[in-house]
Structure formats: structure tokens, C-alpha cells
Amino acid sequence: MNNVERLRATYEFRPVDHLFRREFYIWTEALDRWKSEGMAPDADHNQLFGWDPPADVGIGRLGWCEPALVPAFVPEVLESGDDHEIVRDHAGRVLKVFKGRRHGFMPTYVQHAVACRRDWDEVVAPRLDPATPERWKGFDQTLANLRSADAEGKMIVLTGVGGYMYLRSMIGPEEVCYMFLDHPDLIHRMMQAWLDLSDAVASRVQQQTEIDTVFLAEDICYNHGLLISPDMVREFLFPYYQQLLDNIRRRQSTKRLRFQLDTDGNCAEATDLYLELGLDALLPIEVAAGNDVVEIAKKYPNLVLLGGIDKRVLAAGPEAIDEHLERIIPFMLKRGGYVPTCDHGVPDNVSFANYMHYRKRMMELDHA
Tens of pLDDT along 190-202? Predict the structure, then answer.
């Protein structure tokens, strides 16, 4: 069984020779630490960590944690102090950050790009216009790469920022809650722009190849559940998601389209909610927020799960790692529909020795 066959079998709950081997991602700071602890600077990570070669290809062009603004705002330092900076980022947000370090902590949000209708109409909406020629620069090569990947059987994935993340990144996490109540018409206009751009990208791709998965970065949960109410999700997000999924399915002739969601936090309430749209796959099953991948797997036997390996355990040492994996992997191997990864990026408190032990033990357990 090769990597492509293995990943497709995972999504179809068919037997595999071993669980698909990949990682969510590894912090740059962790890799820097590992190099200081003996990892070769030029190491082939697939070979070193025993990962499978990629078996899916993301289309891109639709952002991830922020919308795909074209043109993006020009990042700049607005103010510099002894230990902090005030910066404007590519999404137009003004942030207070530690000087010299932007990763591994939450910045202080000072201002967002959309505070009123005029900000949206005059500043941001034009940057999401599908008709902007610059947006499609190099897209012919993207399509050629997708055709080649599809010919190899790889899964073609429409990746993009989910509606909540999209709105929050432009309006702000607190401000967007007021906007849902005070200016619902503006929220709908913003979501229609999300749909128009997402569908424009999907449509162009589908002129050349079919799509396997719509994969949205949503991050709509915190450690106690949803950040907005289920009714708000159904009113402001689901109609646009449903229309995108329906449009893509209508243009397909052979492939079954899957819907995959990425959300941090406690995903229990969100899982039931997004199943109303036909959710097929969920990640990264963050353990610190109260998720247990085994219990979720028991409750939702037809849901593909990715993640669920506690990043804190990877930092705790071999004994804790062994106990953790021995509880999860045999059950999930038998159940199927599972790709084991860390429950978010591997942080820099995980030593090289611990991570190598984790990979070794994983590969001892992940096959019959």
C-alpha cells in the first residue's frame, strides 16, 4: 500500500497497512532547539521521523487564519519600545507583540481592519474581489500542478479560512460578537464576499480537475465550547457553507466531496453542530481543552479524526509518551478513520529525544 492508497483508505474507513504517518506541524523554535540537541540541520524530516510522503494537495488562494487579501496590507512597525512593538500585519490589524518574537503567544489586538461599513466597502472588500487580475497570477501553474497530483491519485483539497475566523480576523474577537447583533446586514455582506471568492477559486479548479475535500480553518471553540451560539452559526455561517458545498458538488461528476474542519478548543458542541452540514473529518482534537480522541471516536464512529496526541505529554518524557500512545493507538487502529498527529503544532518545550521516542513508539504501535 503506498501513501496515496493509505490516505484514501483512511478517509473511506478501509483497512490500512499502518496508520498514515504525518505531523500537524512543528514550531520553528522547536526545530531550532532540536538542531542544538543533535538533529542534522539538513535532515530529511520524512525520513528522520518516519512520515509518509504527502498524499494530498492544498489548492490555496483562500487564506487560512486570515482572508486572502489581494493586495495584502503592507506589514510595518508603527512603534518600538524596549520589549515590545506595535505593528500592522498583512491583514490590516494593529498588534502589540514582544520584540523579536511573534510566535507562541497571543498578541494584544489594538485595532482591526473593519470597524464600520465604510472600512469594509472602501478598504477591505476590494481586496477580496475575485475579478482582481493580480489574484490569479500564477494560477495556470497551480492548475497544472493539481492536474498532475490528481493523475497520481492524490486528494485535491480546497483549503481556506472558515467564516468565523474570516470575520474575527477582520473585525476582532470581541467586536464581532457585537457586530452579529448590531449590524447583521454587514456580516451577511462580508460572508457573501467569502462565498463569492471561495466559489470562484473552486470553479476555476473544477474546470481542470475535481475536488476531494473542502477544508476550513474555523477555530470557533475555546476550552468550554463554542465562541458564538449555535443559532448564530446557523444564521451567519451555514447558509454560505451549504451553498459552497452544493455548488462544488453540482460541478462534480465522479468524486464524493468531503467536508473537513479544523478548530482548536473543546469541539464537543461544534461537532454535533457541523454534522448538520455533513461533517466528514475533524482536527486537531486538542486534549488540554477537554477533548479525548478515543471517546470522540466511540461517539462518532463514521467521523474521520486527525490529531489527539497531547503536546504536553510529548514534553513529559518516554514513560508518559508510552502510556498515552498505548491507550490511544491500538483502539484507533482497530476503529479506523484516524491519522495520529500532535493536537496542534509541536512546541519548543518538547526535546529532540522525546520527539524521536514518540515517533519510534508510534511506529511500533500503528500497524497490526
Answer: 999 999 999 999 9
Please report where in the chains the cell 486534549 appears, as a residue. 287
The answer to whether residue 102 scores a pLDDT higher than 70 is no
Beta strand segments in the chain, E: 56-58, 76-80, 84-88, 94-98, 108-111, 155-161, 213-217, 221-222, 225-226, 258-262, 281-283, 304-306, 338-339
SS3 category, 59: coil
Are the C-beta atoms of residues 221 and 267 closer than 8 Å to each other?
A: yes
Dist. CA 361–CA 367, nearest whole Å: 11
Residues 367, 19 contacting (CB under 8 angstroms): yes
| Residue 118 clears pLDDT 90, i.e. is over it | yes
Judge contact between 277 and 238, C-beta under 8 A. yes
Please check whether residue 307 is in contact with residue 283, taking contact to mean a CB–CB distance below 8 angstroms: yes
The pLDDT assigned to 53 comes to 97
Instruction: Work out the average pLDDT over 336-347.
Output: 97
Q: Is 172 helix (H, G, I), strand (E, B) or coil?
A: coil
215 sits in the region (left: phi over 0; alpha: psi -120 to 50; else beta) called beta
292: Cβ contacts below 8 Å, ≥ 6 apart: 308
- Say if CB 29 and CB 346 are below 8 A apart: no
3-state secondary structure 197-226: HHHHHHHHHHCCCCCCEEEEECCCEECCEE
Average pLDDT of the residues of the chain: 96
> pLDDT confidence of 177, banded at 50, 70, 90?
very high
pLDDT per residue as tens digits for the range 80-101: 988 899 999 999 999 999 987 7
Q: How many CB atoms lie within 10 A of CB 45?
A: 12
Asked if 365 contacts 329 with a C-beta cutoff of 8 angstroms, the reply is: yes
